[in-house]
User: What shape does this take?
Amino acid sequence: MTNSAPPASTLFRAGAEFELGFHDLLANGQAVGRSSGMVIFCFGPLPGETARVRITAVKPKYAVVEMLQLVVRAVDRAEPFCPVFGQCGGCQLQHLTYAAQLHWKRTLVRNALQRIGDLGDVLVREPIGMSAPRHYRNKMSLVVKHEGAQTRFGFYRQRSHDVVPIQGCPVVLPALDRIIASLDRARQDERFRPILSRARHVVARSSHAGDQAVVTVTTSVAEKAVADSGQALMGALPGVTGITNSYDISGANVILGRRHLAVGGRAYIEEEIQGVRYRVSPASFFQVNTAIVSRIMRFMQPGLRRPHQIVDLYCGTGTFALFFAKMGSQVYGIEESAAAIREAGENAQLNGLGDRVRFHRGSVEHAVSTPVGRSALQDAHIAFLDPPRKGSDPRTLDALANAGVPHVWYLSCDPATLARDLKFLAAKGYRLGVVQPFDMFPHTGHVETLVTLYRERPGDETLEIGPSSN
Assistant: This one.
């Protein structure tokens, strides 16, 4: 790959233009090139492409450029299907064919496990994706932009707090896409001007079937205007079954507040996955891709054919804990959020699973060091972890290893922190079993990965999970 770049002495200044070849793609959508020893980042190109670019920023060890013209086109380039792709920060990969996205995500996971985890030549399976990778997100968070007396809705621009106005979104469920259009009409209705003029965000969550949706208006403080007009706003948004007001914001970059008030209809939706019913409130953490959650559950089913003792760390509202219980296992779930634990308990009762699950509220790293937590781990046959993006921590992983849990199932949304934690567990004597990526977030740089680990000890049962359930 050749670059028609000028000498280094004249190249690296703002405004300089040249042609550059690109060889890699980052999770944030930036292509990576190199010229005269300098690493260069650019949105737009793909690996294998050459583009004419202009420098916009120069740092000591890298430069940022903008693409002016595509010179050499990759065979995997696709036509983006969203009119604001490249501006909106929601999607990073629409210009890459879906098959190539899956291949890239597999490489992303493998490279992390090798480079960060020092795990050698790991077998990473082909990612399990979607047959129709659009209209999958069951939740969206619209930014409310105020321009004088006008109100607009949109998403944040790439790497910015500037707002890109939108008329629709092709990756949210159709019910949510319709809400965007309805909100656009409602903003021109004088009845709703007091509500929307005070709004920071509008968050909407829909059931996969699209028959229920809750819209949350986020404000700095509880707003009487939202309470007074909530029922009318619900009527102006077809398909919406509840309106809530979220307030008491804890920081400038926080979307939902610490307090919630139902002002119209029901303050939750109901979802069903693999025979388990879930009531999900606006503030709940619930995976955004219901179809892929179902695929993950089906993937694990062969290992759950007989009942087990399972400890579910970072259990949230019980998404997987209740599935394990439905399959016949006894589950002990640990979660720090009081609201999540409350919903987990309510969903256990909703499904008649109260006798198979116990939930404990507390930080995972502290809970596993208590007598009850240690006992639960010592009795467990499987420890299931679904931590936040930052991953787990040495204290938790050490407690898990010291308890001698024979099987660990780790579901991660970040390959780097996953690799770090797997390296820790490998040093404690665990061996890798299955490494299976799932495309929870098509057209983005994110990937979900399920990894099984086990200890080879006499008498331990082998648990097989995988393709037979797909």
